[in-house]
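R.M. (postdoc): so does anyone remember the format we settled on? I'll just put the structure tokens first.
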């Protein structure tokens, strides 16, 4: 069973930065895609970013583009979400997800096969 373990969440003031980490229990090359999504207090979910590992291309939601960066450290089987210029509306539970290397990458990251336990990000004004 694959495990994804997130860390790095916390509380920060608006304009600040946080870096979320997601450590996978196996080589990230075994996934076709990895992603981050967030769930707001009202339970709405939003895709934040995804990484297509074969082509090493990334997608960002418009709401985070130019502020968030999805990075990968192969040697540690870890991906990161660097979040800069944080806003109160970024407050949410953030989840790391991954999908195995067969078939296509699902449309929504919450439908990927593997998901971490989530890490809370709170941004105060």
């Amino acid at each position: 069973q694959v495990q994804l373990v997130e860390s790095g969440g916390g509380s920060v003031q608006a304009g600040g930065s946080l870096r979320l980490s997601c450590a996978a229990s196996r080589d990230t090359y075994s996934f076709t895609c990895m992603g981050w999504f967030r769930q707001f207090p009202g339970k709405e979910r939003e895709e934040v970013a995804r990484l297509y590992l074969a082509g090493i291309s990334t997608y960002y939601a418009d709401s985070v583009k130019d502020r968030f960066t999805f990075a990968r450290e192969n040697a540690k089987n870890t991906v990161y979400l660097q979040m800069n210029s944080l806003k109160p509306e970024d407050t949410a539970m953030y989840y790391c997800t991954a999908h195995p290397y067969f078939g296509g990458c699902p449309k929504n990251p919450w439908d990927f096969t593997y998901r971490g336990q989530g890490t809370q990000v709170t941004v105060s004004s």
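R.M.: ...and that's the designed sequence above, right after the tokens. Also worth knowing: The mean pLDDT is 94. The longest strand covers residues 31-39.
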